[in-house]
Amino acid sequence: MATLKALVVDDASFVRDLMRRTLRNQFPFIDVEEAPDGRKAQAMLLRSTFDLVLCDWEMPQMSGLELLQWCRQHEAYKKTPFVMVTSRGDRENVIEAIKEGVSDYLGKPFSPESLGKKITKVMGARLRSAAAGTAKGPTSGGAFHGSADLLTGAATPTAEAPTAKPQPQRAPATQPASDNAEVSTSSLTSLRFANNTVQAVLKAVTLTEARLVARRTETLPAILEPAVVDIAVTDETVARLNGYVHQLQAVERTQDTEFVSVTIRFVDDDPQKMEDLSRFISRFQSR
User: Fold this and answer.
1) 175 belongs to a structural domain
2) Which region holds residue 124: left if phi is over 0, alpha if psi is between -120 and 50, else beta?
3) Lower Cβ count inside 10 Å, N or C end of the chain?
4) Phi and psi of 7, rounded to 5°?
5) Statement to judge: residues 219 and 125 lie in one domain
């Protein structure tokens, strides 16, 4: 029987699914509910009481920062653990979230292990108490032992060091491109996974996916692994697109091919990100 409640807030269903599975696998004593945006989360927080909030930053209706501000203004959630889980890694954004009372910060893409460690860190003794109570009950089993190992493991790691980069000013909006409008280009970009960052060449992109080429010597991910593609929309604006590895393919038809093609399928529903990506596509189509 669950003794704690967590609210997962993210506009990407793929990310919500990953966080929900992680919680249920590592912390079976935590009941999980989810919301697709900050406004829906706000309504859920008013109807019920939650012991943990895992929240994306960039969402439609209400951003993660706005939801954090709202929580810290309400007595019931002034001290509730609130973890910002987002692809924003700029130092200025981290500092802003800290000023508003965020409990910790986890960059996308993330692994189930790193998420579990963050939850263990921010919930502390309350989590250990809930885990101990579950262990004594009749429903304890293999799933609990994984979380117990996590709770009693090595010292909790510090928050990931953010990349120092100023938040850019957005350029004026342009006419959106269609989902299937593909642009072919060759620009160097960062392809970020939970445990490493790969420098890759962006070869083609639509509003739903991107195709990149990386050296075979790079540490490449598995199919369906979460990823973030950093696309330079302008010289000053970078769109950070959340997605997952949809396809891996050898560039050459030989076993010793030097390059591998990686297709990332996007999961973002954020209108601003789609506008930024549409502007990028339109800019290259007009050349």
Assistant:
1) no
2) left
3) C
4) -115, 120
5) no
